[in-house]
Every structure is written in C-alpha cells, then in structure tokens.
Automatic annotation (TrEMBL):
It comes from Acinetobacter puyangensis. Gene3D superfamilies: 3.60.21.10. The keyword Metal-binding applies. Residues 18-204 form the Calcineurin-like phosphoesterase domain. This is Icc protein. GO terms for molecular function: hydrolase activity; metal ion binding. The keyword Plastid does not apply.
C-alpha cells in the first residue's frame, strides 16, 4: 500500500509535549468580504488564527473539514494562504461541504494521511460521503486503517476525521454523524495505542469516552451550534479552536480556547444552511 507519510521532528526532550492546533469548519465564501449567518467567515478565521498565535509554539496544525461553504478554487487558496502565516506543517481533510473537484487534496481520498512525530502517530481519515451531509469511512479506508494500526502499533495514535462518531445530544444534528460507526469502532476499539479521535462537524466542544479512547469535537472558527438543541439552532458562543499537548508516555492535555466575542451579529433566525 503506498503511504502518504510525513515525519515531523520531535521536541528536543521527552518531557516537552507535542503541541497540536485543531481548526475546524471555517465555512469560507468565495469573496472574503461576504457574510454568512451574519458574520464574515474569513474575518472570523483570521481573528481565530491571530488569537491562537498567542499560544505558539505548535508542532503542526490539523484542520478537520468544512473549509468551504462555497468550495471554489479561490476559497481554498484563500484558506491555505491564511494558514500559511503560521509557517508550520498543516494537514487538512474534507468535510461534507467541501467539493472534491476543487479541494486541495494532499493524498487520494481513499488513502489516509500519516504523520509521525515523536512517539505519536496521527492518521487523517476522509469521512466525506459525496453528496451527503452524513459521513462514512469507506471499507477501503478501514482496511488501510487496520493495516496502519498494526504497522505503527508502537506509536500512541490520534485519529482525525470530519464527522462525529457518537451523538452529541442535538436531535437534528445527530442523524448526520458517522453512519458506519460500528465498523469504525470494531477497527479501533481493541487497539490500545489509539488514544484520541478528533472531529469537527458539530460546531461545539464535545467529549465522549468509549473504552480507552476519547472522542473530541471542536468549535467552529465561524458560527456555533447550540448544544442539546432539538432543531437547528445557532449558539451565542464565539469562535474557537482546540489545543492538544501529547506526552511521550501516552498521556495528553487539551483545552478549548475562544475569541472574546463573535465577529459580527449572528443571524439567529437562520433555520438551516
């Protein structure tokens, strides 16, 4: 199997954690000045990036999908140009709003991206099911993943995908999560080296523990979804991001950080998008 493998130099001492920045769901528009749901998504992303730079250094950036609301080549180029201001390794995956024709793919959609850094392995999975809001990890990818977990069994592992594996408690949203949850869990739940599964999609901070694995979602750099809502509902929480610190013994710390306020006036009358 051809691998898309990157090796990032590890921190100089084992007691220094590997620091990851997770960005998710920017929902950018083709025109950087345009508004979506009452805010400017590109301006909001810029402010999140500037805020996160207060917490440098990071070893790499993981972007967990829905980069574009209007998925043109220009939209993706604007995103890449903005994230390039970090001057750090950056890895990204598709969300349900992203378009395969214009998406700046790092690897074919059926082949996971593998990043080795210190004693940790990060595997980026594509959960986009073309034309669907909900997600699926294809049987081909699951076969790749099973082989990779065997090949890199000596590394503690972080998996990243767009769609949430477990319900977050929003009735309208939970139907649009990962549709082949059980097949995914059967692939990973007995693999003791798998510590974390990161996702986007739900536009909120969420933690669910299944066996020894923590399933973590991330706020959007754009608008947020109101937790525990029966129907589509936007939240007043400002944009945010997640920082993870991975230690050489397999432990980790994480925190969500947010802007002090939204960049614009949220359109709470919006009932879908």
């Amino acid at each position: 199997m051809p691998l898309h493998l990157d090796i990032i130099p590890q921190p100089p001492h084992d007691e220094h954690p590997i620091r990851l920045l997770q960005l998710s769901d920017p929902h950018l528009l083709e025109n950087k000045q345009d508004f979506f749901a009452g805010i400017q998504p590109f301006k909001s992303l810029q402010m999140v990036i500037e805020h996160s730079k207060r917490h440098l250094p990071f070893d790499c950036i993981l972007s967990t999908g829905d980069i574009a609301q209007q998925p043109s080549q220009q939209t993706y180029q604007d995103y890449l140009d903005e994230v390039a201001t970090y001057d750090l390794p950056h890895y990204w995956i598709r969300g349900n709003h992203d378009d395969n024709g214009n998406f700046p793919a790092q690897s074919p959609s059926e082949e996971p991206e593998i990043i080795l850094i210190g004693k940790w392995c990060i595997i980026m999975l594509n959960s986009q099911k073309h034309g669907c809001v909900s997600g699926e990890i294809s049987p081909i990818q699951l076969a790749h993943l099973s082989q990779l977990l065997h090949q890199y069994h000596d590394y503690f592992t972080v998996l990243a995908l767009h769609h949430n594996t477990f319900p977050v408690g929003c009735k309208w949203l939970d139907q649009h999560g990962l549709q082949n949850q059980q097949a995914f869990l059967e692939c990973i739940e007995d693999q003791q080296q798998v510590k974390i599964v990161l996702s986007g999609h739900v536009h909120q901070d969420f933690l669910y523990q299944h066996r020894h694995i923590d399933f973590l979602s991330c706020p959007s750099t754009c608008i947020q979804f109101k937790p525990q809502s029966e129907e589509f509902c936007l939240d007043s929480q400002p944009p945010g991001y997640r920082i993870l610190e991975l230690y050489a013994n397999g432990n980790y710390d994480t925190k969500i950080l947010r802007l002090s306020e939204n960049i614009g006036e949220i359109d709470y009358k919006l009932c879908e998008y």
